[in-house]
Amino acid sequence: MRSKRTLLALGAGAAALTLGLASCSGGSTDESNDGGGSSGPEVEVFTWWAAGSEKAGLDALVSVFDSQHPDLEFVNGAVAGGAGSAAKDLLQSRLQAGDAPDTFQAHAGAELQDYIDAAQIQDVSDLYDEFGLTDAFPADLIDRITVDGAIYSVPSNIHRANVVWANPAVLEEAGLDPEAEYDSIDDWIVALDAVQETGKTPLSIATTWTQVHLLETVLLSSLGAEEYNGLWDGSTDWEGSSVTTALEEFELLMSYTNSDRDGLDWPDATQQVIDGQAAFNVMGDWAEAAFAEAGLSSPTDYIYFPVPGTAGVFDFLADSFTLPVGAPNEDGAKAWLETVGSAEGQAAFNKAKGSIPARTDADTSDFSPYQQSAIEAWGSDVIVSSLAHGAATPVATLNKVSDATSKFTTGASDLATFQAELAAAVNG
């Protein structure tokens, strides 16, 4: 039975979390999110949106799904864990055991390659024609998610990774102008030094995936968009001097971070900025929803700007949903994908999630000022793909990068070893 399988999945996820996998604050599945009391065929949707602003976005999407498909019953397969760390492990176990959910969340882009190579997800290109998505999504996005002429997921949003969030009161306490612009990491270091003198945390961060997130933005800042892209197509030498310089900047930035970072997940690091314990946090724009959830408004309570040195570049990732091979309710999964790709679904989901719609025709008139700025940047900036969130590399590569980063930031390796391990992770 579907319900039994879902409970087993959640139980396994909880067990994995107790073994030390990263977890968002709060529990996993909320029974109130099981789909409006419908008694129709079940559709299990597997995500890592289990708490906080992420679950708020999922709830908004489910509301639209219930309205568009009242004959179907949404079954929440959410498993907690920052950036999907726990969910991806459990999902792979289920796929290998022939126990696929009806649909699962994955980052659009290279992250899907492992599932494609293992023949675990289906080509959904025909659904793009059926649902009118080819015309609704920007051509550049379609190009980025097309693999050998096929498309394997439907994006629910567009996120920006290279964003700094800051508490203006903490900056003023340090004698800094909240409206100051930082053109480079070196400029930003001056501000971090000033905050450090006050006793506050200059730069809050959390567990390994957030450190990889910071790493990618430093690489982008130091190398520029062209050389950063070259890291993934082989035209930039991972063992070259320019990467060494970027890693030195990353090492320096890590020295300004909170000592309890490895025991936290992203909401905790963002909360330090919200509470005035830290000045800055580098995080994707899902943090925008966390500030909104806390009842804060910008620029009075928080400010945001591109990571220094990355103005004019949009570090892209997108959450998306797939059609697994062996989905028990394939028609129900297709109905979920229809809602995910719909203008109504994208407007509701992204307003709550802090991201922006992948569709160009969704109603964004009541989106936040940050989201309006992201919409403008998406349409004008140079687009690059995120490392930490699956757009630039397959899961196996990211796992190796994460292992190397964890060793380095916990003092188990030096910079030269770190650089060599990164090169080996990406180059195979």
Automatic annotation (TrEMBL):
The keyword Transport applies. InterPro entries: Bact_solute-bd_prot1, SBP. Keywords: Signal, Transport. Residues 1-24 form the signal peptide. Belongs to the bacterial solute-binding protein 1 family. Part of a binding-protein-dependent transport system for a sugar. This is Probable sugar-binding periplasmic protein. It comes from Microbacterium koreense.
